[in-house]
Amino acid sequence: xxxxxxxxxxxxxxxxxxxxxxxxxxxxxxxxxxxxxxxxxxxxxxxxxxxxxxxxxxxxxxxxxxxxxxxxxxxxxxxxxxxxxxxxxxxxxxxxxxxxxxxxxxxxxxxxxxxxxxxxxxxxxxxxxxxxxxxxxxxxxxxxxxxxxxxxxxxxxxxxxxxxxxxxxxxxxxxxxxxxxxxxxxxxxxxxxxxxxxxxxxxxxxxxxxxxxxxxxxxxxxxxxxxxxxxxxxxxxxxxxxxxxxxx
Length: 248
Fold this sequence. Notes:
48% helix, alpha/beta, seven-stranded parallel β-sheet, 17% strand, 9 strands, two-stranded parallel ribbon, globular, Rossmann fold
């Protein structure tokens, strides 16, 4: 792969898609900065995976919805590696499922803090650095929920992912003149700690038969797409959000 000697910052890198992305990019010679908030054990596991393959990796704890913490994280990353070539905005959460009439203001605000404000803060901090270097790639993890709407259980979450898609297009247009490419990925139903936390077995059993490929996706399915967008094979792609959903 053509990412050797490059550096990636992965938010929410302590499990699932983030951890698998770290594994794949680390194996290909990319220096990895693993961001985590509360899951220190998972971040340590990610670091051990990358280093077991001969890769370079550091862990940085930061609540990515907090500007001060984000700025400190990016400073530490650049202090350690000297650069950030790839940003994977992966941190996100559904917080909890709720019908629309039961969503309170606290749940709405927290969902936007975790899924949208965090992406704004981290992107802004990293893009300042990328603009100076006239190069970089930003990959935003969205969701098919942005198009499906999350009706009945997660409109608050789905609407944040719609915002992520809009942010992806806007950033792509603004930063293309600086040599920076911004794209997104919209995962479908992915079996990961995310689903283990937010889905019941009944829901899993109900959804999988509706997927044309008749299986849930894996973190590896998404991480491989991240790897492609991070590579030189994707150097003429910008402003797109690619659905990886098994056809759902």
